[in-house]
Write a structure and sequence with these properties.
Length: 227
C-alpha cells in the first residue's frame, strides 16, 4: 500500500515537472505561417496602422520612428504620409537585407507598401469630424501597437531606424535601442518647435510610449515566435 502511494506521488511529481518543462519549451517552438495567414495578418496590420496614422494626422500629433517622421512631413509639406513613408523606407531595405535576409526584407517591403496605401486611401471611405487629441493619442497608440504585432508575428516589420540600429549594433557594437532613442529625441524636439502647442507633443509622447508598451508586453520570444 505504501509502495503504491509512493509510486503515485512520484508519478504526479514527474508529470508536474514534465508539464512545467513543456510549458517552458512550448512558447519557444517556432511557428510557421501559411501564405494566406501572412496575407491576412498584413491586411489587418495595414488597416490598424493606417487608421492610427489618420487619427494622429487629424489631431496634429506624431509618433516615433520613421512613421512619426512621415506624419510630420505630411503636416508640413504637400506630400502625403504614404508617399513619404514609402520613400523614406527605401534605403532601409538594404540594411534589412544585410541584417535579416531576403524573406524578412520582402515581407517588410510589402508591409510598408500596404500601410502607405492604407493611410492615404482610408480617408476616401470614412471622414473624421471631431476627435480629441488625447483620445487620438491613446486610440492611435493602441491601434498602431496591435498593428505592429500583426506584422512582427509574421516575420515582418515597418522598416525604419530599428533595422539600421540592428545593423549598427552588429558592425560597431552600438546598442540598437540607443540609436532609436536618439532618432526619436531629435524627432520630438523638432515637433516641439513646429507643432501648434507643446501639449500636442506631450500627447504624442504618451501615444508613442503606449505603442512601445503594447509591443514590449505582447511580443516576446518566450511567448511567441512566428516567421
Amino acid at each position: 500500500m505504501q509502495f503504491t502511494l509512493r509510486v503515485r506521488e512520484h508519478t504526479r511529481a514527474a508529470l508536474t515537472i514534465s508539464g512545467i518543462q513543456m510549458a517552458k519549451r512550448e512558447p519557444h517552438k517556432q511557428t510557421s505561417h501559411a501564405l494566406w495567414e501572412d496575407a491576412l495578418a498584413f491586411c489587418i496590420g495595414a488597416l490598424l496602422v493606417g487608421l492610427a496614422i489618420n487619427f494622429l494626422k487629424f489631431a496634429n500629433l506624431i509618433t516615433g520612428q520613421t512613421a512619426g517622421l512621415g506624419v510630420l512631413i505630411d503636416q508640413l509639406t504637400p506630400l502625403s504620409f504614404g508617399q513619404v513613408f514609402f520613400l523614406i523606407n527605401l534605403p532601409f531595405y538594404i540594411f534589412a537585407y544585410i541584417r535579416m535576409g531576403v524573406r524578412f526584407t520582402v515581407k517588410t517591403a510589402i508591409s510598408v507598401t500596404l500601410v502607405s496605401l492604407s493611410a492615404d486611401y482610408m480617408p476616401q471611405v470614412f471622414t473624421i469630424e471631431s476627435l480629441h487629441p488625447l483620445f487620438a493619442a491613446f486610440a492611435g497608440g493602441v491601434l498602431a501597437g496591435f498593428g505592429l504585432l500583426a506584422f512582427f508575428r509574421h516575420g515582418a516589420s515597418l522598416g525604419g531606424v530599428g533595422v539600421v540600429g540592428l545593423w549598427a549594433q552588429d558592425r560597431w557594437g552600438v546598442q540598437a535601442g540607443w540609436i532609436q532613442l536618439g532618432f526619436d529625441a531629435v524627432l520630438f524636439l523638432v515637433a516641439f518647435l513646429l507643432l501648434e502647442t507643446p501639449l500636442l507633443v506631450i500627447y504624442s509622447l504618451l501615444g508613442a510610449a503606449l505603442v512601445n508598451v503594447i509591443v514590449g508586453v505582447n511580443h516576446r520570444q518566450d511567448r511567441y515566435i512566428g516567421r
